[in-house]
Amino acid sequence: MATHDVLLRLYEDDKYAVTKAMVAPYERPALSKGYLLPEGAARLPGFHTCVGANDELLTIKWYKEQGIELVLGTKVISADVRRKTLLTGTGETISYKTLIIATGARALKLQEFGIQGSDASNICYLRNIDDADKLVNAMKLCPGGNAVVIGGGYIGMECAAALVTNKIRVTMVFPEKHCMGRLFTPKIAEYYENYYTSKGVTFVKGTVLTSFEKDMTGKVTAVILKDGKHLPADMVVVGIGIRANTSLFEGQLVMSMENGGIKVNGQLQTSDSSVYAVGDVAAFPIKLFDGDIRRLEHVDSARRTARHAVASILEPSKTREIDYLPFFYSRVFTLSWQFYGDNVGEVFHFGDFTSSSPRFGAYWVSKGRIAGAFLEGGSRDEYEAISVVVRRKAKVANIEELEIQGLAFAIQESQMEAPDSGLAMVGKPTYAWHATVGVVAAVSIAAIGYWYGRKRRRW
């Protein structure tokens, strides 16, 4: 996932990228994991810079070597889809032939919920590298101090783990009954909450913050909850969700009102045939869910929708509709889990939920078939196995037998050949810039990639 708007031009041999950030596009997962470690922390460009063909790191030097001019510190401020033009913050107007929207999403802020005083210097979010640097600095200023994490989802859970690793006491606050409420079952959540508790994290569930206490310098010293409880805080980390960046195109392209993104078809094409959308901002049909439109907030979706959009543009006759298998994962402490599919239907748990080195999981069964699967502590082959049974919607003949077999059910079913990805491209791309576009323009969920015509002028 990249963190900033990118503009990629192609006309004959003319290629360049424009970004509002001061660094080359990079992927976000490291920001809530390796970037926050107290020792040996990940830093650009050596870790999680976008990765191209042959595992090449797409550094500034790489762009130059590929003949791509990477222009930093420039932002697209408006778009005119009818005229096929874009306006940058420098006053430049750019015409395009084909446009890929990969503007990603932004972090929701407490101000949007009317929380007073939420602009304090020791309140942190985590969406881009600047946020990560601020969070790292805040942690350095309060060793052995107290942190309050607002939100029990991905960002909240991964940041809480990082804070504890940095020897900071953590209290997590969220309104749901358990952590990761959108995905975890109560049984799965119970394991992770117990594990976090053993590491020193305190959970305050079923409530929300209402305000802050501050000192004379304006820094937060306590979080005040709805029930009046005061939580001491040397720093606050907020992870309450994201919202797709669609504002440049609202009123010009058809939106998916239920999913909050730009609606696209199976080729990742919007309501305007010259415009495509990928990553967090795209609401696209999932074949596995009988064509139901979903907007998926994950780096894997960004990578694969990017690749598919580029294939659709370059070789439309050879590229079928995308057939994406929804996938999510996380790594915290010594734990690592993966989830495939949809958490709908009746759930059946399996494995050992008691070990400090666990291997457990769950199947979701709908209409007699596997709809989703979760696994903690699996091997590469085991994760692949659960993905196969979800992809195939494996039939469950005997529910009781499924519970007894557990992971063995997926391993047995996975002996069959894996299903087609739906990306009808044979071998490696024949275009020298194909992999570049797939990574720069859309591997990142917060990038904009554009193919446009030769007109380029200033107002």
TrEMBL record:
Residues 20-305 form the FAD/NAD(P)-binding domain. It is an enzyme of class 1 (oxidoreductase). Pfam families: MDHAR3-like_C, Pyr_redox_2. Residues 325-410 form the Monodehydroascorbate reductase 3-like C-terminal domain. Its cofactor is FAD. SUPFAM superfamilies: FAD/NAD(P)-binding domain, FAD/NAD-linked reductases, dimerisation (C-terminal) domain. One of its GO terms (molecular function) is monodehydroascorbate reductase (NADH) activity. Keywords: FAD, Flavoprotein, Membrane, NAD, Oxidoreductase, Redox-active center, Transmembrane, Transmembrane helix. Its EC number is 1.6.5.4. It catalyses: 2 monodehydro-L-ascorbate radical + NADH + H(+) = 2 L-ascorbate + NAD(+). The chain crosses the membrane at residues 431-453. Belongs to the FAD-dependent oxidoreductase family. This is monodehydroascorbate reductase (NADH).
